[in-house]
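Input (Formyltransferase family protein):
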Amino acid sequence: MSITLFLLNKKGYESLIHILQNKNYISLIDKVITAEDKGNKEDCCNEIFELCKDHNIDVYKKDEDYIINSEFSLAIGWRWLIINAKNLIVLHDSLLPKYRGFSPLPNMLINGEEEIGATAIFANNKMDQGEIIISEKTTIVYPIKISEAIDIMSSIYVSLVLKIFSKLFRKERISHFKQNESLATYSVWRDFEDYFIDWSKDAKYIERFVDAVGYPYDGAKTYVDGKKLITIDKVEAIERYKLETPKYGKILTFENEFPIVICGENTLRIIDAKDEHGDIYKFNKLRVRLT
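Output:
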């Protein structure tokens, strides 16, 4: 019994660390494939590569030549098509069949889901519609940063991966069942435009959005007076201002030098913002509109 691992990002790296703590599981690994991910500042490509080298495991970058000849393959965080892989198991950042597709974890946080989790499936030729092997979930409390959620999800991934490896080592059958199509929802991919704050949304929603697209992702964006692009890293929803004529995106006032911005509902305190060069951005006037 052997397995090829396609590993990316912190979840893939953490899973590999725990696999390598068991000599029996190391013996199952045929090779590891990793890659760089420019959209994620924690792709962990180099860390995965070096860890494999330290343990004398064959490791390849995505664009190198390699042959998949193992009985199973397992993909964690992988964003590219995998061909010619037998019994391909994919770990997905949601409780399938909900949030099939792209960026499920950020979108779950933006939507304020009370539970997050991951699912292992046998891949087929349809997007995240393969039969479910196992899933795990946990309850979260807001506010929560995406980096914290990734740490939680990494622990879930480790648990799922070790259970799968245990079955493979014992040569047990990996049972699976069909997804309930009536419960299926889809999560859409993000590009640069999707990182911009929609100030017409309510303050709590925007707070979740800022937290969900922050490090290791590119961060929430907005324009100051339609000209200067800034990244907003930390905010806090404020509900005590009753507005007679709400004009979302305008600065209402300052509290301890922090601007209070009008949202579609309630207001938001901007605590931490940076300019295009990564330097701290200070708001120095009241009559400002954010778009």
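The first helix runs from residue 9 to 19.
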